[in-house]
Amino acid sequence: MTSGENRFHLERKMMADLKENAEKPDYSGNPDLGGGKNMLERMNHSHAYLRNWAFPMLSWKPGMHILDVGCGGGAAIHEMLKLSDHSQIDGVDYSETSVKTAAETNAAELGRRVSVTRGNICSLPFADDTYDLVTAVETTYFWPDMEKAFHEIYRVLKKDGVVAVINEGSDPDLHTDWPNPDGSITIYRPEELTGFMKNAGFVDISVKRGEGDIILVQGRK
Nearest Cα to 79, choosing from 50, 119, 100? Predict the structure, then answer.
């Protein structure tokens, strides 16, 4: 099986999990509902192509302090450890299942170079001017308030720090099959994301497009 075929089968299984959870009355894309850990582990694999495309376009240097918001299953943290030697990477997610899974994925460096915390993107539990880079991989769909979220990211970034949003979906018209029974999932177009960044104070905003509908949107504080 080719890597593309493997990704296709993983994504089909992940979508099946989402649709099963979507039938529950309190569904909101929350991995804390049944089957969330398995879904997170599959996403660690199925989103590898997205990280492999976007991460080489980011600027890396030794000793970075990095925050991965909506860290999910923790694969992005695991890969970034290799891209910045002697870095410190913090993960944050609103889901307890995600926090536990990300910690397990990065167990070898947990408490050393990695920490994982439960928290809200609209009220990040971190000090001002802390991070060189904030990454958001496949997570903006679930943010409850985009303006507050980007203002919080701006707050915790150091001067000249960078935010990088990496999404598989950037045109809602192409993803009408995504389960979204309560309307809590929103696919944002690149111009919407750049608008939120600009409103928060970011400059040097750029958009890169890849295969299909994937995008990388960056801004500098």
Answer: 50
In sequence order, what E strands does the chain have? 65-69, 88-93, 114-118, 131-137, 157-167, 203-209, 215-220
Question: How would you list the strands of the sheet with 114-118, edge to edge?
Answer: 114-118, 88-93, 65-69, 131-137, 157-167, 215-220, 203-209
Q: Provide the pairing of β-strand 215-220 with 131-137.
A: unpaired
Q: What tens digit of pLDDT does each residue of 92-113 get?
A: 999 999 999 999 999 999 999 9
CATH superfamily for domain 3-220: Vaccinia Virus protein VP39 (3.40.50.150)
The owner of tokens 């904030």 is 134
Q: How far apart are CA 62 and CA 101, in angstroms?
A: 26
Q: Which residue ranges make up each domain of the chain? A: 3-220
d(CA 91, CA 94) in angstroms, rounded, equals: 11
Residue 58 token pair: 């980011």
- Nearest to 192, CA basis, from 147, 139, 133, 152: 147
Residue 137: name the closest of 23, 27, 54 by CA: 54
pLDDT in tens, 166-211: 999 898 888 777 765 456 789 999 999 999 999 999 999 999 999 9
Given a cut of 70, is residue 31 above it in pLDDT? yes
DSSP 8-state code for residue 183? S
Would you put residue 188 in left (φ > 0), alpha (ψ -120 to 50) or beta? Answer: beta
